[in-house]
Amino acid sequence: MALNLIENLQIKIKTSNKMETTSFQLSRRIKDKKIKRKKININIYVFWCLDSYHEDPVDEWAYLMTADQIEGSIYDEHVECPAYTLDELLNLLPDEIILLDKSSHFLAIRRSLNMKWPKYCVCYEDSNHNIFYPSCFSNKNAAEAAGQLLIWCIENKYL
Amino acid sequence: MQTTSPGLSQKIKKFNLIIEHIHCWRMILFNGKPIYILEKQSEMSESFPSDHYFPAYSLGEILEVLPEAIKIPCPNISNAYHEYRLQLCKNNSNYLFAYHWEDGSLRDFYNSAVYYKNPAEAAGQLLVWCVENGYVEL
User: Fold this and answer.
1) Between A111 and A144, whose confidence is greater?
2) Is some CB atom of chain B closer than 8 A to the CB atom of A7?
């Protein structure tokens, strides 16, 4: 009995249903920038969906579905926008940006060791690891930080 | 989303690390050859033999368990350490995760210098290196 409980507990720790993607709001902002998904080496495409009767989409009504789930679904939902995962966003982000002073900055992911700070920072930094702070976006979800950086790159014409 | 390949996933599974994951590779034999199908763990049948499936990790899931920094003893100085920080290198959509230390002009990378198309695979390779070198506790 005790062993069964321990096994169940381990399974609960190991499995998770939350797929880390950009939030619904941020995904819609990326969609508005007319960014196209790169269809290379991706196993699973995730989308934010809404039931068809929702005309004015809000966060609470949106839910995540994979391309396979949408194809096999019997319900009446519609795809609102792509939900980007971290690896997709890394693919879309430039490897390097060159600032006005001609200095090169490279894409970096940092994870904070300080529990009080947001967990991930996605940014551009120079070869001495000095972060170019306008490009630094922090969030507990790395995909959300990378998505914000993508918007920043578009708005500042680095993409 | 990309996940670690079946080969690397099997290697990581052998370490018995506790890593949250959503997807699994399921192995089926077709004409005697193994074929791997990516499935959501929550949708898998419990009756399926456990040795036929193993976790498939995404980049985000691997980053959760990779140490942000590792400490390496300084040569020639007792009780002194260099802190190597986790570093992403992206080059023409190829990825390398490594531990990096910089002091003036001196740079050093840990892990191999192999770049991968799939960032989850690149991070997974570093995780294997970390476990094999004692930087991640089993």
Assistant:
1) A144
2) no
Tokens linked to B89: 């290198």
Q: What is the pLDDT of residues A118-158, one digit of tens each?
A: 789 999 998 888 899 999 999 999 999 999 999 999 999 99
CA separation for the pair A39, A64 (Å, rounded): 19
Distance from CA of A15 to the nearest CA of B (A): 5
Most B CBs within 10 A among A4, A10, A37, A44, hence the mutation to make, goes to: A44
Domain positions in chain B: 6-58, 63-132
Q: How far is A33 from chain B (nearest CA, A)?
A: 21
Domain residue ranges of chain A, discontinuous segments joined by +: 24-85, 88-155
Alpha helices by DSSP H, chain A? 2-14, 24-32, 67-72, 86-92, 142-155
| DSSP code string of B48-80 | S-GGGEEEE-BHHHHHHHS-SEEEEEPTTSTT-
The answer to whether the CB atoms of B2 and A87 lie below 8 A apart is yes
